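Consider this one:
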Amino acid sequence: MAERQPYDPTKLEANCRERWRQDRAFVPSPETSGTTNSFVYSCTPFTTGNAHMGHVRSYTIADACARRARSQGDSVLWAMGFDAFGLPNEIAAIEHSIAPRDWVDACKRRMIEQFDRLGLSVDWSRCFDTSEPEYYRWTQWVFLRFLERDLVYRAEGIENWCDSCQCVLAALQVSDEGLCWRCRNPVTLACVPQWYFRILPYAAELERGLDSLSGWDDTVLACQRALFGKTSGAELVLELPSGQPLSVFLAYPQALSKAAFIALSPNHSYVEQLVSKSQIAANLGAQRLRSLDRGERSLQRVQVVDSGLKLQVPGLIHHLPLIITPAVDMRFGGGAVLGVPALDATDAAIAEHLGLAAWSSEAEDHQADLTPACRYRLRDNSISRQRSWGAPIPIIHCEVCGQVPVPDADLPVRLPDTLIPTGEGNALARHPTFAHCNCPRCGGRARRDTDTLDVHFDSIWMLVPFCVPPQARVKSMFTHPELRRWLPVAQVVCGADQAGWWMNDRLFFRVMRDCGYFKDLKDSEPVRKLLMHEMVLSDGRKMSKSLGNAVDPDDLVHRFGADAVRLSVLKVNPRKSFNWTEEALRENYQFLSDLWNFTHEFVVARTSAADDNVACDPSLRKLARCSAAAQRKGSAAFESRSFHLVQKELKLLFDAIRRTWIEIERAHIPGIAEAIAVQDAISIVLDLLEPLAPHISSELNTKLNRRVIPASTTSAAIHRGPGKEAIGDKVSNISLTRTSIGHQ
């Protein structure tokens, strides 16, 4: 008898991966009638260095979804790309004194190697990164389609500005202390020409569409609704001293007589006319950097700037003071509202700050002309950045023709191959050849736009290229028939910090629908199910290199194996944060070792199974019930993406299997019927385990020589005892996978 090999995850996992690679196991099968097509997607990683534990959790969850779908007979597309543009990549390239392209390529190779060691069942043949000219050509094409529909526009705007990085920053890139997330220098405000993404034309449709997304986690839907911040009310038009009309929103139309002031957002276009530049610098800087959270405990901290103006409000006798406050942004977007202190706690705090009484005004005889309206907290997003490592904006500025789109035939507008960022401003603007060109309309001398697109614009259409075979992307990116096969996405997995981004993806597919694409996509919704997982913690804090509490996934895989790491990150409900410890790793390593050892011992023991049949005893009937329960509950847990519950059920079943086999061996030499019953139960354990820990499951299935055999063979081997239900009948009702136990 050959000596049993100890559990060695390093060796067996490498063997599995090589076999999968040679078999091209994760390339989607050709489309066939009757087969369900399942596209699994997890938000793509940034090429900012090595993979971290947040990546491990996210992609292990997605991989479990993909493997489970395959086990159910689906044809699965599970691919991965890389977010490779943006300031982090540019800064990293500068710090390492290499070109950004070289940095991105090195990160991709490293991270692919790490993800491969985790056993991710990714079709790497469909991999791409957003900094490839073949990709950003289509990003520029999408920009031009938005431009044609007036959904992107250029305007002067007050934006967060980092002098050190010489770049506009998104709100998420500014810390609570008003510091740049990257260099930690103070963020100021600058009035700069920017390209903006117009959202409001689709806001009502997008907000209504949330009601149809039954497969999305409630937390994601709540995040989306909060992002829209819809408020129903009414509006009326006032007149400024300059004669300009000012549209004002009233959230309480029935309480016009209780209005005490008019409030403008610090980002309202009229602010520059109403207050001096010195007031803006002294008082509005902090307001524009961040808006007031309505849930803030201390409403006395509400910031207010008095414009010194009072305006007549139709329907009221009193003129109301016009003030500026960020409280408007958090509720109604960058507009103007009537404050009603009697009905709103924030308005009451503002009125107290201004020394205003919350009076009820005497209404005049005529009624105000109120028009039903709603407001969204959404604001148009800045999508241009003053950095060189990004998709060039495909616009040419001509003194004669103005803003001229680059013709589609001339795309992509490529980044110069010789471009080396220095961190001192935008290298594109200083490049000797990039900026200067001829106008495509008049042929005269012109200048390219030297801003680049923000990485969020790169990613709004990232679902598309995964669906298109790589060789077809050049010509058929938005028309290839496989788009109909894979969209909408069956399952999206994203982190808690990415839940808000999906509004832009949903918007993209609606805009493309109106451009004549994706018309077969029901309700224009690109995602059927969306799971948002929480973060990995260490010592109660977010695991982060900057906090010095990160762990190295490579080290964990080296010491415990990928399967043990996967089980450990799946041990906690994905919708909850979990505090990382090695205790879970050690427990799961021990479980896998026990499973490995028991299965090998069982395979040896079954070769000696007696040919005579032993009547079914209570322990086998109990095992059958345990098997049925594990399969039923495990399947339900997979459906709800509760992988921690899948683990619970398969481990309970494994304990029952071991107890049953020990009882049988103590009583007598196991018979064929008993060996079949036990092996069928082991098969259920492996079927439930395979999406979670695929390497050991694959090896043990091979060891068990699992193959389908006629049900009648099993039924004949297990007979009915006197006055007892046949265990064969009981097992057949569980739909177990039938396996051969032929002597080896």
